Amino acid sequence: MKQKNLISIFVIALFCLPTFSQINVDQLLAENRVNPLGIDNLRPKLTWVLSSGEKSKTQSAYQIQVSNDRTGFNNDLIWDSDKVTSNQSVRIMYQGPEMKSLKKYYWRVRVWDEKGKVSKWSNVAFWQMGILNKTDWKSQWISAGYLEDSLRPSPALRSEFKIQKKIENAYVVITSHGMYQAFLNGEKIGNDYLTPGWTSYNKRLQYQVYDISNMLKQGRNAIGALLGSGWYRSALGWGDNENLYGSELALLMQIQIEYSDGTQEIIGTDKNWKSAKSAIQSSEIYNGETIDARKTLGEWIETGYKDRSWLPVKVQNYGYENLIATYNEPVRKHEIIKPLNIIITPEGDKIIDFGQNLVGFVEVEVQGKKGDSLIIDHAEVLDKEGNFYTENLRAAKQENNYVLNGEGKEHFQPHFTWQGFRYIRIKGNMKDKISLNNFKAVVLYSDMRKTGSFTTSNKLLNQLQHNIQWGQKGNFLDVPTDCPQRDERLGWTGDAQVFFKTAGYNMHVDNFFSKWMKDVAADQKKDGSVPFVIPNVLGENSAGSAGWADVATIIPWDIYLIYGNKDVLKTQYSSMRSWVDYMSSKSTNYLWNTGFHFGDWLFYRPDDDNDGRAAITDKYLIAQCFYAHSVQLLINAAKVLENNKDVEKYTALLQHIKNAFVSEYMTPNGRLVSSSQTAYVLALHFGMMPENLRAQAVERLVENIKSYNYHLTTGFLGTPYLCLVLSRYGYHDLAYTLLMQQTYPSWLYPVTAGATTIWERWDGRKPDGSFQTPGMNSFNHYAYGAIGDWMYRELAGINNSEKMGETGYKKIVLTPHFESKYVSEEVKKQNNGEQLNEVNASLETYYGNIRSHWKRDGNRVIYRVEIPVNTSAEIHFPETQVNKIKENNNEIATSDKNIKIETNSEETILYIGSGGYNFSIDD
What is the average per-residue pLDDT within 864-872? Predict the structure, then answer.
């Protein structure tokens, strides 16, 4: 009996072996998204993720099939690539027949491995096109038919229509001037918020596509929408800077129904719609929303509603020329956070603490009398005495005001605004009738999937990573904003470019930034200068600052590096070159020393708000460094795009720029005219000085750090590169010392002060509990979170190759630092002498998941890695004695024939294929 069971187990195992060892197609992406609706790229790019139970698996060929029908792959193909010999599995271009507006296309793929063994067909995925031609728009723009008052209440727009046939599929396409929420038969359409998103509206206005097949019914249907001021006409920036894109809200909606008999029908906004003022009495981005439930319109989004008192809408002639599909992920609800406790402040305010500085809004469920009011103010912090603190919000009220109708339990949440807060203050005559159970905080951010994780054996570092992630969540609401709470919330270009690489570790930001970079190009001035904020709401003269405008070159190149997205370089190349040419036009003898520049913004000196008096790093020195850097990135892009003429032209220019830097800002022995950390960091990172002078420049940087008692002194432009430069030039331990410093200025000082997001200033709250100047003191401002890039790259060691053909993690470079000895006794004391004993990080790429996990085990370091199928990796171990390195407890020379070994005087390099590996290194 036992023998029979053993035979059965052997047979089962033998049967399962091919499935275990073969290559599998796990996930399909079209335009980098899962089953996207409404794309307007006529040649969509297709990606698939592979897996296998074997090591060193690669793809040798693929075959893609596209069908009109989910089940039509045998007889209804519209494109078959046939077998294509290629190891490419990312961003393969569809090359079938021309596609049609709103048509859904189904696709699948299979691959052959390195041994010529074919996989099973993948599961079927799809993409759906948007409206591809202006003539396909059959609907009309409509706006409210009544006169607005000064509060600008949100209009409600509605209509009804009848369906008499059986529905096969139905889609609705929606956009607006202002924000919209749309409804069908009593239900909200989609789960997106703040639609249609924020772009340079006059040039690029997004529409969204939703599948409403299951929301429609035979017979009568009710369709409606609410409109809010949003970015379109709310005050943005400072003063009375409102109506930037227009003063009147409008809606454009088009429904396409496909019936089972093969016919189609289009229903859209037209003169037959009606309008009325909704219960939303006012809604502005900075000031919040007021809802008077006594003025509710009843069941206006249901059929049979009596709308005789409603006014006919006005038909507008706004056209369709600037309409584009939505490429990036929409803003959606995410975490739901319950309040921790109620606080009565010394001033007598009733405060609710949610325990996390977040961005979104508070949902309220209350019961009271008609006319009762509930007013909610929002704040990030309490002051030194424990009172509600809103001075740093400047002119932004951040206040939601609800008036009850008295008809049982009532639910309130804002529609067209959001707040940045940890604490809320309750006012109104309902104040004493509420409890914690009446409230919950809803977190809003663009629906980018999480890609990275980073944890260590140090709790403070883990909290820092938490703060970086939450700073990103709170400021990635369709555009990368500087802060989410005060009267600003703008897409500052400098903040975005310094944080991009960190953002790319934490979340999938390919589409998010590709969309935003198109607005950078759209709002770029004719002379090539790039505005301070995108979309540009600050005016024509707010442009051209070094380190800010360089977003035009830095982010496209970084997108290419971490996603292998060559299309972004093609799309943005003209913008990149225009920015470089602008700098050249403002230079004399290749020296750019004119114009306004923010410089090393908000570095550690509290008296420096860019008035120049405390700027310890020469702003024109900084400008020259970024001038050279942008030229180098333009050269890099030109090489990828095979634009040899530009490679030659700008390579010659780059040498002139660096020569001018040496002549103007450096003494013959390599000392810079500004002796700051930022000056040396930028000069070293951007290769501004001759190689023979770089070693002593690094020594000067090190001495500077020591002279500040092992503290940094950098601002927005110097901070992202500080630790990277130290690690590159052999001072990783000093970089780690800076990271672990707990006293001001440092990354961990805010953590020890209770921060749950990244602060705008190194000392937003001073050690004595008081605040920095309220005019510029956000407690959710991600720029200094750029240290996350170094944490992933150097502590965990996850790096992408920058060689052509290897970008996007096709080739993975692992450089973990296991040794992190303290240099400063003070810092060692702050951390109770604790060493870093473990770092566990992962990153989801277009090829699959990378993991880099090291842990100390007595006198050994255990290092576990995972490498995705269809990629390869090189691991750089800081150990020259190969016999100390083992894999699965075997010497690496004999453990795996596929591991190739290379040694030099500083390290051992292993070249490996896909799969999981367990290494150990003896101290």
Answer: 98
